[in-house]
Amino acid sequence: MEMVKRSKAVVPLLLLGLGIGLGWIFEGVTHRTAVGQEDGEGAGSDHLMPDTPAAHAPDWERAYPQYQAVGEELKPFPELEGCEPPPQDLYRYGGRGRKTFVSVADVEDFDTFYRRCRDMKSQVMAERREYMELRYDLSGEARTDVTMTRGKPIPVGPVTRLPEGVESWEELGELSPAEIRERDVFPEGFRPLSHPLHTIGHQLFSQVWTRVHPEHQRFDVDFDIPDPYLPEFPPPLFLTTRPDLGDVSQGREITQANFRELFEGIFDPEQLEGLRLLGTKFPTARCNHPKGDRTPTEVGGGLQHPPAAPKGAAWRVLGPRVPDPRWADWLDLPVAA
Hints:
Shape: extended
Oligomer: single chain
C-alpha cells in the first residue's frame, strides 16, 4: 500500500517535469523560426536580423548634364582661414574642402579665434550687404491691402534685379535658354545664395528671433535677409485636414515645453512623438558645440546650478537602497561601509 501511494505521488511530478521540458523545446524552436535562424553550430537567438546589402548602380560614372568640372566651368575654391569672408558668388567655385571639420579643428585657441571673428564681423557684413544689393531690391516696399495671417504687410516684388543689358522682364522672357547662357544674363538673384560666412557656416537666426532669444546672437556674422521679407513670428500653423481648429499654435512658439498642451487630442501618438523630437534640443543641433558655438554667452560656459542630490517630495527613484558609490564624488552622498 505504501509503494502504491509513493508511485501515485511521483507520477504528477514526472508529468510536470515532462511538460516543462517540452515547453522549453517548443519555445526554442518557435523563437528560432521567428527570427529566421537556421539550425546549426553557433546559431543564437540574442541578436537582430542582418540588414540586406545597400543598392548600387555600377554604371553611375557617366557624363551627367549637371556635372561642372573644376578648372573649366568652375573656379577652384581659394584657401581661406576661419572668419575670412569667402567669394560671395560661391556657386562659381568648386572642389572639396581640406577636411569636414576644418572650421572647428583649426581653432587652437578659442579666445584668439573669438576676437578675430568679432573684429572682422563689420567687414563680413559690409561685403554681404553689397552683394545682396547687387542681387535684390530690398527697399522694404510693401502692400497694406494684402497681408499675412496676423496683419504683417506683404512685400512688393519682384525683388530680384534684372541683369545688366536687359531692360525688362518681358525682354528677358523673349530670350532662348541658349541666348541667356551665351550672354550670361541669368539673373544673379535666381542663382544659389551662399552662407554669409561660408568658411564657418552653421545656423543663422533672424533678428526677429534673436530679439526673443538673444542667446542665439552670433559674434561673427548676422542674418542677411531684412525683416520685411520674413514671415510672421511666431508663425501661425494650420492643419490642412482640420480647418475647424484654426491656428493650432494659438500664437505661441511651439517648444518641447508646450507641444503636448497644444496638440493633445489633435495628433495621434506617432505624430506627437515626431513633434517631440522636432522640439528636442539635441547636441548635434548646436553644431560642433565643443568649439563651434558662436554666442558670447557660451564663450565662458559654466553650470547654472552645482550638481546636487535630488530632494523634496516630488521625486522618487526605484532602485538599489544603497547609492551607487561611483556617484559619491558628484552628489556628495555617503558611501556605504
